[in-house]
Amino acid sequence: MSVDQGKNFKDILFEVKDQVAWITINRPRVLNAFREQTLDEMISAVMATREDPSIACIVFRGAGDRAFSAGGDFYAMKRLTFTNGSMWNDRMLGLAMAIRGVTIPVIAMVNGWCVGGGHELALWCDLVIASEKSVLGQTGAKVGACPTVGATQYLPRIVGERIAREMIFLAKRFDAKEAERIGLINKCVPEETLMEETLAWCENIKSNSSQTIRMTKKSLNFESDQLYASWQHGMELLAYVWGSEECLEGMNAFLEGRKPDFQKFRLANKAALADYMDGFHKNLNAPPDMRD
Question: Which GO terms fall under molecular function for this chain's record (predicted)?
Answer without folding.
Answer: 1,4-dihydroxy-2-naphthoyl-CoA synthase activity
